[in-house]
Amino acid sequence: MSKEMLNALDTLEAEKGISKEIVIDALEAALVSAYKRHYGQSQNVEVEFNEKKGDIHVYAVKEVTEEVMDSQLEVSLKDAMEINPAYEIGDTIRFEVTPKDFGRIAAQTAKQVILQRVREAERSIIYNEYSAYEKDIMQGVVERQDNRYIYVNLGKIEAVLSKQDQMPNEHYKPHDRIKVYVSRVENTSKGPQVFVSRSHPDLLRRLFEQEIPEVYDGIVEIVSIAREAGDRAKVAVRSTDPNIDPVGTCVGPKGQRVQAIVNELKGENMDIVEWNEDPAVFIANSLNPAQVEDVIFDINNPKVCTVVVPDYQLSLAIGKRGQNARLAAKLTAHKIDIKSESDMEEFYANYDEAEVEELESVTTEIEDQEDTSDVEETTTVVTDEIQDVASEEE
């Protein structure tokens, strides 16, 4: 058994990456349980596994006492001193109690326990390995799918791709190679569970880092991303180097860089806009390709604004089913109301008329509320003063 056991440990360490120490600790714990089950529950025993020879030895551990109350746990000082005169009360002595047939019993009893410990160690290794890839991008192979998930093989583990994390314009088939974003890794009772996504905005961020060296190096920074997976996305970028154009860098010569990302996302349209510290300029850029005439912010809420565009650009600014305006709002974190120039002129005209009517109503109301006697008294005083002045002139 010794050689076979050592060979098995070496193979396990080489193929599964599980160290011998972990397996030996599990084996010794299993053998203690096996011995107690077959040879006495109350005994305090230790099991040693010789890593060089592969031999297994079982020792009963007993404490040296003046008077023995339990022979399975204690040994008298007199008997201990016969073994070694140096023993004192309170010391522990190990007696080898390895049964002749213990190897067979131990192998049968400890098999499931060892497998469980090995499985736990293997799960821990996989969890530690893949948790390092959390919030990162990996390439996998589509294995199969059911009503809930598509299962993607990442190498040592099968990740799950839920329906909300799939792109609506994609159809996944077995053996398809796809890039996925590792959204989270959980260590469950059934083992590590990896959740991946194709619709997450940060998938776009990682693809930009892969395809554009300036983004990876931090020279060009992605400030924000607004994405409707499979259809269209807007990416706001800025440059830490004034000599580098962030938009041109991301687009690349003849659009080659951004086209590689579009191809990976199966034709998802990409708008790359330049970030600006001035919210008005940033909002105007975010509505690209529409032309913006003016951006008016709400006095009471700076996160709300009205964008004025030429009449012929209104539908372009809003986009199909409001998509362009919706993505611009997500990208800039502002509530955007888009109006044409003619609508704004009409709005201002109505606003002025309403303001005049409001002032007139307020004036009328004030006049109605004044005390008539006070008005008459004031008029009398003024008349008397005029008469006095007239008399003096005469």
Automatic annotation (TrEMBL):
Its main location: cytoplasm. Residues 362-377, 385-394 have a biased composition (Acidic residues). Residues 133-199 form the S1 motif domain. InterPro entries: KH_dom (IPR004087), KH_dom-like_a/b (IPR015946), KH_NusA_2nd (IPR058582), KH_sf_prok-type (IPR009019), NA-bd_OB-fold (IPR012340), NusA_N_sf (IPR036555), S1_domain (IPR003029), TF_NusA (IPR010213). GO terms for cellular component: cytosol. Keywords: Cytoplasm, RNA-binding, Transcription, Transcription antitermination, Transcription regulation, Transcription termination. GO terms for biological process: DNA-templated transcription termination; transcription antitermination. SMART domains: KH (SM00322), S1 (SM00316). Signal peptide: none annotated. It is found in: Cytoplasm. Residues 229-301, 302-367 form the K Homology domain. Residues 362-394 are annotated as: Disordered. One of its GO terms (molecular function) is DNA-binding transcription factor activity. Participates in both transcription termination and antitermination. Belongs to the NusA family. This is Transcription termination/antitermination protein NusA. The gene is nusA.
